[in-house]
Write a sequence for this structure.
């Protein structure tokens, strides 16, 4: 009887230990990163997945985005000079300073094997790039705006005669998304996801929420809101070696993320065949779409 009791205790303790084990960390080599479609090489510490968060080595990604990186070992501070702005982060802190703006990450920066690693959200929040995490492919895709950074301070929004232009070779999604579909009113945008479209919403935590084709969605517009992404691939227009392979629109619900001072209206970003970006308001884009 005593032996049976001891066996039960041992088995129970082993079961508890198994339950309390931390969630496994995905192998570092599983995750790939590209910046403007160019793979980023990591000579030692690799990106890895920790408790559903992608952590990346700061230096190699920052340098691929045109940043100059310095590390002060005395106060454990990383400083990045990028496109005229200064980004400062401290090890074991979730606070990042971008010039005079304070950004709070979901997890703090830390040192792994001698390299400073940060959550993927750092790239979009501090370095002004568009980030997509494809969990199925274990692929991080980073795209810079105008291949540099977010427009810093347009004096006035784009106008119909201004810089916004649809790519004449990619207008299928434009017609479906903006004609008799997309509505902006009372501080909100509403729309139905067109057929054949990949759409998602980037949450405040930097996570991706996929949107379903045929479903109607409503989102708030204003300071602190995030970004909607829409992509349509027409197989007949996929040309090997061409810069643009899909029709793509990013809708900034917080216009300041696109460099605009007025955050009362959403801002649409489109890329032409050379991946040059242009911006406009929903109202402007709808009027232009109706002329396609």
């Amino acid at each position: 009887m005593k032996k049976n009791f001891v066996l039960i205790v041992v088995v129970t303790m082993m079961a508890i230990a198994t339950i309390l084990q931390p969630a496994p960390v995905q192998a570092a080599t599983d995750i790939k990163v590209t910046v403007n479609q160019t793979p980023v090489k990591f000579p030692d510490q690799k990106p890895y997945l920790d408790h559903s968060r992608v952590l990346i080595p700061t230096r190699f990604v920052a340098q691929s985005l045109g940043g100059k990186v310095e590390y002060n070992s005395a106060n454990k501070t990383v400083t990045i000079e990028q496109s005229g702005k200064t980004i400062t982060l401290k090890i074991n802190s979730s606070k990042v300073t971008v010039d005079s703006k304070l950004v709070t990450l979901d997890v703090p920066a830390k040192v792994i094997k001698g390299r400073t690693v940060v959550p993927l959200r750092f790239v979009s929040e501090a370095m002004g790039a568009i980030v997509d995490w494809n969990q199925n492919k274990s692929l991080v895709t980073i795209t810079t705006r105008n291949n540099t950074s977010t427009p810093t301070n347009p004096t006035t929004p784009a106008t119909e005669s201004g810089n916004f232009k649809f790519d004449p070779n990619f207008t299928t999604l434009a017609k479906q998304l903006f004609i008799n579909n997309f509505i902006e009113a009372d501080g909100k945008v509403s729309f139905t996801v067109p057929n054949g479209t990949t759409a998602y919403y980037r949450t405040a935590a930097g996570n991706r929420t996929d949107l379903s084709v045929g479903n109607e969605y409503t989102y708030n517009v204003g300071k602190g809101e995030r970004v909607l992404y829409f992509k349509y691939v027409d197989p007949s227009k996929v040309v090997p070696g061409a810069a643009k392979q899909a029709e793509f629109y990013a809708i900034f619900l917080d216009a300041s993320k696109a460099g605009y001072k007025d955050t009362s209206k959403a801002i649409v970003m489109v890329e032409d065949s050379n991946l040059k970006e242009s911006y406009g308001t929903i109202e402007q884009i709808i009027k232009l779409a109706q002329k396609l």
Q: What stands out?
A: The helical segments are 2-19, 58-64, 121-125, 172-178, 282-289.
